[in-house]
Amino acid sequence: MVDADTKVIQIAGSITVDELAKALGLSVTSLIGELFKEGIVATINQRLDFDTASIILDELNIKNVRLEKKNTATQTSEHRHELSDKAVGRPPVVAVMGHVDHGKTTLLDTLLKKKTVEAEAGGITQHISAYQLDYEGRKITFLDTPGHEAFAAIRQHGAMLTDIVVIVVAADDGVKPQTIEAIKFAQSANAKIIVAINKIDREGADVPRTMADLSQHGLQPEEWGGDITMVPISAKRGDNLDKLLDMVLLTSDIEELKADIDIPSEGLVIESHMEIGKGSVVNLLVTGGELKTGEFIVAGTTYGKVRTMLDFRGRPKGKATPSTPVTVTGFKDLPNFGDSFVEVADEKTARKMALLNAQVAQNANASANVTSNDLLRMMNVADNSKVFNVIIKGDVLGSVTSVVDSLKMIDTGGEITLNIVATGVGDVTENDVYMAEGGETVIYGFNVNVPTNIAKMAARDNVKIKNYRVIYELLDDAKSEMEELLPSEIIEEDKGEMKVLGVFRTERTSIIAGGEVLKGEVKPKMLARVVHNKEVIGEVEVESVQKEKMAVDSLIAGETGGIALKLVKRLTLEIGDRLKFFTREVKKRKL
Ligand code: GDP
Hints:
28% of the residues lie in helices and 35% in strands. The protein is of the alpha+beta class. It has five domains: 1-78 and 370-383, no CATH class; 91-256, P-loop containing nucleotide triphosphate hydrolases (Rossmann fold, 3-Layer(aba) Sandwich); 281-363, Translation factors (Elongation Factor Tu (Ef-tu), domain 3), CATH 2.40.30; 385-485, 3-Layer(aba) Sandwich (Rossmann fold); 489-587, Translation factors (Elongation Factor Tu (Ef-tu), domain 3). The strands form eight sheets. The protein has a six-stranded mixed β-sheet with strand order 7-8-6-9-10-11, with helices on both faces. The longest helix has 21 residues, at 347-367. It starts with 6 loop residues before the first strand and ends with a strand. Guanosine-5'-diphosphate (GDP) binds at residues 98, 100-106, 198-199, 201-202, 234-236.
């Protein structure tokens, strides 16, 4: 409940200590002083993000102020202009997502083989991040991404890329965790969903059950009166793929996808890497205008003149219209995956804009120079937070970005801080191993090679190199590495209680006594707290229990018997003392 005199402070992105003080009606020095008492060293111009400011309010026990996130225009809306009335139709951009092994790759491969104009000998061997199909005289752009994390990365970079998400669900396996993730992604990206129920050629395929499963997760099939198109397919045999493509086109018609073409060209970086002899090789998806060779473009903090432009098959292309994926060379540096690019008039403007972007990026970093994690760390005087050091190597910049962004998204409840020591494109090198030495750093490779000599060197130096081809496996591994860093959890369970009726022998490390079990039970190996006059005076371990001088497995409530206790430190047990039995388990914690 918010009462009338609650004050609302709106925070757009971040707020400086100075601004926060003013908003709270405190003097800056007193706010800094209060923060200092909480163990936070802040300066007047320090920027605090929303979460941090909330924590501070909590810490200072300020109740009559409520913080509110102010919606700033997202990059998404900046990216997608209002269309002019000269806008023309454009092909849909489709992403294929779903649980691992449900058939995404097979679907993309089969479509590519079947539907591209020339399935010439040799075909396409290198990894492509996007391709375009010709179907019924129209074009459809498909994105091939290293995983959902790639989309998460794109979303983080603020750009909306996909019009339609085809969610692949295996009819013999049903809805699985990554299916749910895909649904959530598509919904949050505002993309239209089409479900491909795959592997219908399999014996265990059960289309109605899969549909029921999907409807449990919020996707109601059209057949059942819902609004989601579901197409049963076999990606492997090619069954019903035409129907799937028909549905893609139908959906895109309903959406009336359009773009302006008489504007400076613009779009997004979907992959980038360095190649010997070519320099930066960058895959772009044009979203507006027409990109041509010779044009100057800026992407993030880098720029270039488009030297060569190829289509996804590696054939020269003079002009790329909206929704077309192309590969260009000419960038001075590698732009980031998810960066948007835009055409500018000349080199001078390009250079200036790239510089400006660099400054903005720097300010953005500085704008939240205290994050809530940092703050929690600072407040925790004992600093229980552990640091997980990693070096990330990937085949292309896109995978590095995806891995980094996904690692950052692993929620450790502030207990573990991710420290990215270094990242890079290419195989794991000697230098990576040097950097990882002694620092408890794990090197993660994604789709790269670990040369034998490097593996040997790492083994010798006790450096862990872990190489993965599937991002989820990499993330699972990182998670379990982080779990290793978490302090263990101690679980104690009460088991019973005994009243001491006699003490027969007391030695330095053991006691033999007799008593009555008042409740529960007692068994060898249990632990017990010794309570004398309501005060715990020590902890002992039960070595054995006896009933009528015979060793038994347990004594239960109501029974009397003998008990041998092992002492950790000297202790005197007296008649009338209580033994409170319990078990203790040390458990590794999970994230
Ligand atoms: P991804 O992890 O989603 O990319 O899945 P893949 O495309 O790699 O497919 C996983 C496995 O399922 C492979 O062994 C495929 O051959 C198989 N598979 C994919 N689609 C079908 C299908 O329609 N029918 C059958 N029987 N197997 C399929």
